[in-house]
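U., I forgot to send this yesterday:
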Amino acid sequence: MSLDEIHVQGSSISFNCFSSKAPSIKSLFEAMVAEDQTFSIDPERAGFHDCEADDEIIRGFFSVVVTFEVEHLIDGIMTKSLLKRIETCEFIALKENTFMTGKSSAQKNLALVLTGLTNYGVTPIEYEFHQMSLFQDRLSMVKCIVLSNPKTKEIRRARLAGRIESYIEYNIVEPKNHEIDSVAGLVDSPLGPINVNLTRKGGIRLNVKKGFILTVECVQWILSLARDEKPSSIINKGDI
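Result:
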């Protein structure tokens, strides 16, 4: 299986999408596999492991050792103990985007490390209202949309499920003063129809058949659709 292909083990897969800028894939990969950037238990050092790369993609894992507290009984007295565990995220790094899935603690650390390695602020992608609205219009079927009103309103958040033609007709939102938190529905992707859920703060969940072979190129295509961009270098792409 090539680095561009993602074997979906279950019935869905989720990514957090980050804006990044690598000087070159080769130089970034070399920095990741340097000894001082690799994961270690002794001494405890957050870092990369099991990384692979080609000319366009780096795929691998980033792990951190996290301390957590546990309450338990000793001789009838409640006490607390500090324990440690390893938390891991998987990542796909491209020239201008990085996709992460897994533990949030590892994702936050990875974003900080990538910022240092690339000298570019690696930050979560966030969508503007007009981008979320356009994305909704570009789905072949909208199945759910989540809206949020200003904090001063009685109805703070509304979830509309079903086939939605124009949610603005429902008397639950401020027409010119609300946000679209997420949109879910069916998109006609280069790999065929896929159920997608897009969140305003850069999350993408794709619902597919178990064992589906997703491609990084298809994820980029959906990202371009959400960012109101013209996808480039996408096989079998059509006008958006």
